[in-house]
Structure to design on (182 residues):
């Protein structure tokens, strides 16, 4: 059995957070000591581990409470929804990143930014000895093994969506005539 302070330390939470969890019925102690201290059992600790994992995944407490009260059938749906939200946030952040890079490039007095664009990446690959055919094979393999990461990479170069779509289309079809290298 753990006291509230011990449980809080174990999960890096404040005591008041655990008191709040108790007040909303998310995690209540199994018993009390003779001095009326909250005591958490192994089952309570396992429940807290699940709560902690869902919180780190970004699920709101209300969703976590629903999951814990249900048979778990909603888990996939809630996690997929959270993943879509994260992907949208990442896409928005990438857009902001590209915009800031463009704005910084328009101001010569500002220090250089740590960002690589399409031309810089192609230059690195050429310096490493890759020709156009090698780069095309690289894209084809990247698309085959990790299409989402390939999309993310192309977006990070600041390419517009039409160019990204074109590169991914010819990568998927294993074409050797992409018309552009990146």
């Amino acid at each position: 059995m753990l006291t509230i302070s011990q449980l809080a330390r174990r999960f890096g939470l404040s005591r008041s957070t655990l008191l709040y969890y108790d007040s909303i019925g998310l995690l209540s102690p199994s018993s009390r000591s003779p001095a009326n201290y909250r005591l958490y059992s192994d089952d309570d600790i396992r429940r807290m581990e699940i709560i902690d994992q869902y919180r780190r995944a970004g699920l709101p407490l209300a969703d976590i409470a629903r999951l814990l009260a249900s048979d778990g059938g909603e888990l996939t749906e809630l996690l997929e929804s959270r993943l879509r939200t994260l992907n949208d946030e990442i896409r928005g952040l990438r857009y902001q990143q590209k915009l800031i890079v463009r704005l910084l490039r328009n101001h010569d007095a500002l220090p250089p930014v740590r960002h690589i664009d399409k031309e810089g990446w192609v230059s690195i690959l050429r310096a490493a000895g890759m020709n156009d055919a090698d780069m095309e094979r690289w894209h084809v393999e990247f698309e085959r093994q990790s299409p989402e990461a390939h999309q993310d990479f192309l977006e990070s170069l600041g390419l517009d969506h039409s160019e990204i779509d074109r590169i991914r289309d010819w990568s998927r079809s294993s074409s050797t005539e992409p018309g552009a290298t990146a």
About this structure: The longest strand covers residues 38-40. The two ends are 58 Å apart (CA to CA).
